[in-house]
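Discussion board: Methods & Data

I've been asked by a reviewer to show the raw model output for two of the constructs in my manuscript, not just the figures. I'm not sure how much to include, so I'm pasting the format here to get opinions. Each protein appears as its amino acid sequence followed by a line of discrete structure tokens. Is this the kind of thing reviewers expect to see in a supplement, or should I convert it first? Here is construct A:
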Amino acid sequence: MHTFPKSEKLCGQLRIAALYKGSKRFVAFPMRVNYMCVQESAAPPRVLIWAPKSLFKHAVDRNHMRRLMREAYRLSKQPLTDYCFEHNCSMQIAFNYIDKEQRSQADITAAMQKAIQKILKQLQE
């Protein structure tokens, strides 16, 4: 299914702080990706999507970028979900927008697919 329910959103200050402290990270421009694999029962990945106020002063622009990133993730998340259920683990992922300019939906979708493939590649090593 191509949905993004509340249960797949990363919430809580402690979880977010642990993700940023003990995670692997890389850049898939225009996003910086932090991820951590958590060995627990099989569950879909929990995701945090962030566009900083320092880059986009207007809330409308931040919301637009987050909406584009959520849509790109929603359409591209199936390989991550399959990996989590096959390996009986869960993942926490943060996608941080780092470009100063707004990108198109096609650019963000391509970057999201590239980031997901890179996560899966690094997990299999």
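Construct B, same format:
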Amino acid sequence: MPFTDAGTLFRPLAIKSLELKNRIVMAPMTRTFAPNGVPNEANAAYYRRRAEGQVGLILSEGTVIDRPASRNDPNIPFFHGDPALAGWKGVIDAVHSVGGKMGPQLWHTGAARYTEWEPEATVESPSGLDAPDAPRGEAMSEEAIADSVAAFAKAAADAKRLGFDTVEIHGAHGYLIDQFFWSGTNLRTDRYGGATIKERSRFAAEIVAAVREAVGGAFPIILRISQWKQQDFSVRLAETPALMTDWLLPLVEAGVDVLHCSQRRFWDPEFPEIDGENGLNCAGWAKKLTGAATISVGSVGLDSDFTNALADKGSRNMSIDRLIERMERDEFDLIAVGRALISDPNWAAKIEGNDQQSLKGFDAGTLAELI
């Protein structure tokens, strides 16, 4: 059976200086194919193929800021230093050469970083915790916090200088910024802690404000957020719309243009007790409460959620009709696609052309190379 008309996914959208031909975003996905942290021609070709495949906006894999504890694998790319920035210049030039748009995702892994490959490295976080009651590393001093804020701003300025079209700050999934949001990992008693989510959002708000000052008013800033954490899928930072407003509205007021709302399944309602089992998802509520543009993400193009899909071969696109229904009512503005685009760089073009016959499902074997 053909999909419902997918035309709603291919409407243009402008957000400040960013002009997109459609609503499909390539989600950031860690690939660990940047030797010693430096992107090369293979990375550039990987992203160029998604632009050729009609992805409207590409967000890079997580790329780390200039902090000694920021990355968790030797082949995760830096977004600092001349060799890495030269590599990223090659990536954005390749994407632009075929008419694509792209932003880097700026990242600090915090206490969630792996250390097997670098056992003596510093691990820093709000309170020296990777999860509630799970000590790891050291609590950040105010000087370390200030240096991290500055590092995010410097990376964003470099992104604009290199010619990227936007920038995303990674504030989700239990990494550093998210560890400040989470009451279980932020036990600080200074101005970066507190009993409320609004108080614990200060670190993120300072990063956003510094990035806004570094890139100017017209350059779009995206912030990725999530309720769930890799440490605990059941965590919810905001149990009510009022708490979600307390969390997200100050970040939008600090300079965020787009909230990238990560959930495991985009079709799950965020507050079903309010609007039912078919109610607004996380991105829908974030848009309603803050007025910001939003990106939804979570198992698009898969017939199971992303954690199960990692083991699947040939996962199909049973979720597309549900996606189109939500996009038609403008519940959110953009949809990010992850693993489906790892296996099939032409996924977006095939959806646009209703080419189900050649549409590939996610194959976990393709994680071993840059297709």
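Answer (T.O., handling editor elsewhere):
This is acceptable in a supplement if you add a one-line summary per construct. For B, something like: Residues 47 and 285 are 31 Å apart (CA to CA).
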